[in-house]
Each structure stands twice: as structure tokens, then as C-alpha cells.
Amino acid sequence: MPYEIETNDGIVIAGIPDHIKADDPSVKQKVFAARANAAQAKMAKEGATGGQLMQAGLDPTEGNSFLKNLAIGGGKAIVDAGRGLSQVGAGVADFVSPRRPDATGEQPSSRVDDIRQQVARSRAQDEPLMNTGGGVTGDVLGSIAMALAPGGAVKGAGLLAKAGGATDAGATLNAVGGSLLAPRSIAGAAGTGAVMGALQPSTSTDETITNTALGGAASALIPAGMTGAHRRPGAETIRW
How does 17-51 read in b/e, with b if 16+ C-beta sit within 10 Å? Predict the structure, then answer.
């Protein structure tokens, strides 16, 4: 008949088959796992980040499948995209209507700095996830989806316009959406990449500048590579 044990620190392990002794390695492993889960829950309740949990030898992603981490990583990318847009909006608000000193004369933090603190904490929280293959893959795929979303939305608006009889407007929207999805010129690709880089959440102005530069440079390589592929030595130059 199954039995249960209770350790001195209050850990209860129930449903142990009667043929397995209380000091069996499998039972000890369950006790260790229960202690780790309790410590993790306690630290999380006290506000510990994922990075701090890892430093304490606790991994919040332990036991997660690749697909689960993939889904969480994709969700992280969507949240990051929203936070990046909020950061841009906060910058505009700070410029138009800066926060004024309070009654004590103390200057409050800017709206952008508030979001930067959120970004820093979010990164610390997501550290265990971004140490997994599934988490990184989901984050990359989610970021790509967010980058393609504006172009897809514009093309969708073009299709609706055509369906409603606005043929010229639909064609224009379709062309603009196509350009956003796959810019054909190096300048267009660089511009799109730079904008997407600038929209990434950051913890400092320097990071925003770096993201903008890297986004523009990386995106410019796509049409440049396609142009190079079309111009093989000894072959006729093809213009698409």
C-alpha cells in the first residue's frame, strides 16, 4: 500500500509504493525537487528575477519542452514590440510635455526612463528562457513576424479596398505593402531595417542608436545580395 513521508522542513512526498524504501535515491530526488520548487516560488514571490533564480541554482524553465519555450519566446517578442512602440511614444510625450518637478522640487524620471527600467527588469526576468533553444527560436520568429506585420496589414487593406471597388487605392496600398514586406532597393531596405531597429526596446540612447544602425545595415544586405546574385561574371545583366 502506498505511503508518504514528511521531512523535517515540512516537505511531504506522497504516493510512494510500499516496495520502495524512504531512503531510496528516487525518493531523495523528489525531496530535492520539492525543495527547489519551494525555494523558487519563495524567491519569485519576493520579486526575484529569472537571472537571480539562475544564480541561486534554480531554473524556471526546467521541465519545459522545446515547443513550450518556443511559444513563450514568441510571446516575448510580441511584448517587446509593444514595449518598443511605447518607448517611442514616451519619447514623443517627453519632448512635447516634459514632466515637471513635484511639490518638493524633485525632478521625476522621464517616461522613457520608466520604460527603460521595465526593459532592464524584463531582460533579467527572461534570462533563463533566452538560454534555451526554444526560447531563442521563438523570440527570433516572433520578431520576424512583428517586422512583417505592418507590410501584411497594408497589403490586407489593399485587398479590402479592391474588394470594395477602390481599385486604384487598392493597387497603391498593395504596392506599398509589398515594398514594406520586401524592399527592392538597398536604400528602402536599409530605411525599413533602421526603423525596425529604432522600435526595439532599449535600456539607453546608445543602445537605440546601435539597434538602428544594425537594423539598417543588416536589412540593406538583402537586396544587395539579390543584386549580386543576378550579376554573375560573364552573364548578361538582368533587371527585374
Answer: eeeeeeeeeeeeebbeebeeeeebeebbeeebbbb
